[in-house]
Specification:
Layout: E1 13-19, H1 26-34, E2 41-47, H2 52-66, E3 72-78, H3 85-95, E4 100-103, E5 109-110, H4 115-126, E6 130-138, E7 147-151, H5 154-160, H6 164-173, E8 183-186, H7 187-193, H8 204-213, E9 219-229, H9 238-251, H10 259-276, H11 282-285, H12 289-301
Parallel strand pairs: 1-2, 1-4, 2-3, 6-9
Antiparallel strand pairs: 4-8, 5-9, 6-7, 6-8
Length: about 300
């Protein structure tokens, strides 16, 4: 028997696009939305108080491109003050009418015209609430968007087929491989778990951690859904670095993790600081020889 939360083909799907003075690649992004053949798409544009002239120009281009579309409606939101990515994204999701939420950054593109149709069918066929997919990486300097790599790697796909703690261990030990641009979830699941508002700029990783620790199954859809622009990704900002240090610090205090994983979280925090903030803490890394050895062995094992 179908329930209110069941997803059926033709239900509204919400694409949530967050912006903050990053409109330079907007045309590519919106064109990839406009070409979708799924019959009921809602786009939520949520802006975190961008410079007003650039924002007004953006609004006019949205209206010119999407007004009158047979299968796409849109809504424009704008914060009166800058609140950070976490709150901005949450505002957009809470306004969404769709049962499935598809985050899409302005510098990324849906891969093909059937992308949203394929995602919806996967959610339906697997009764999924939390799905990650394949993404294709291209350099922004490539005029024809030539793909040079893809994620997740074969080793990461193998990890996705294991239990949630194995996924968390991989994220801790190697890297976060659950891409925010190619991971989707139901609005119902979001309302149950929500973002972690202790963070300002990093909304995806703490949210995925909450879902994984709650036991929510992460499905892997072995289909490319996103063209991911890589050269545009800049050096880690101070705000993102601050959030990531807080993330590892919070993990080190999470008693649901083993003592070994909590200790490794402390090491991961110091390693992140060393790589992205200050080399001065190098001696702190020497306090964790067991973690350094574990990281090396894990890296060799999961090449």
């Amino acid at each position: 028997m179908e329930t209110e939360s069941d997803i059926v083909f033709g239900d509204i799907v919400s694409v949530v696009c967050c912006s903050y003075n990053n409109f330079q690649f907007f045309e590519d992004c919106i064109n990839s939305i406009a070409m979708q053949d799924y019959p009921a798409i809602e786009v939520i544009f949520t802006d975190d108080c961008s410079e007003i002239n650039a924002y007004n120009d953006f609004v006019e281009r949205v209206k010119a491109r999407l007004s009158g579309s047979a299968n796409i409606s849109y809504k424009l939101l704008r914060n009166s003050i800058n609140q950070g990515t976490v709150i901005n994204a949450a505002n957009g999701i809470k306004e969404a009418k769709g049962k499935i939420i598809l985050p899409l950054a302005f510098d990324d593109l849906f891969y093909e015209k059937s992308t949203i149709r394929n995602i919806v069918n996967f959610f339906i066929d697997n009764k999924a609430k939390f799905v990650t997919t394949k993404r294709l990486n291209f350099n922004e300097d490539s005029e024809d968007k030539q793909v040079f790599s893809e994620n997740p790697s074969p080793a990461e796909v193998a990890i996705l087929k294991k239990d949630n703690l194995s996924i968390i261990e991989y994220i801790l030990t190697k890297q976060n491989f659950i891409g925010g641009c190619n991971t989707y979830f139901t609005k119902e699941l979001f309302l149950q778990c929500d973002f972690d508002y202790r963070y300002r700029l990093v909304e995806d990783l703490p949210f995925y951690y909450k879902l994984l620790m709650s036991g929510e199954k992460l499905f892997y859809m072995e289909t490319s859904t996103i063209l991911y622009r890589t050269a545009y990704q800049k050096k880690v900002s101070k705000g993102v670095a601050k959030d990531m240090v807080l993330f590892y610090s919070n993990l080190s205090k999470d008693t649901r993790l083993s003592r070994k994983k909590r200790r490794y979280s402390k090491f991961a925090k110091e390693l992140y600081i060393y790589r992205n903030i200050s080399k001065k803490n190098v001696f702190k890394l020497l306090l964790y020889p067991d973690c350094m050895l574990f990281k090396y062995r894990y890296k060799v094992k999961h090449r």
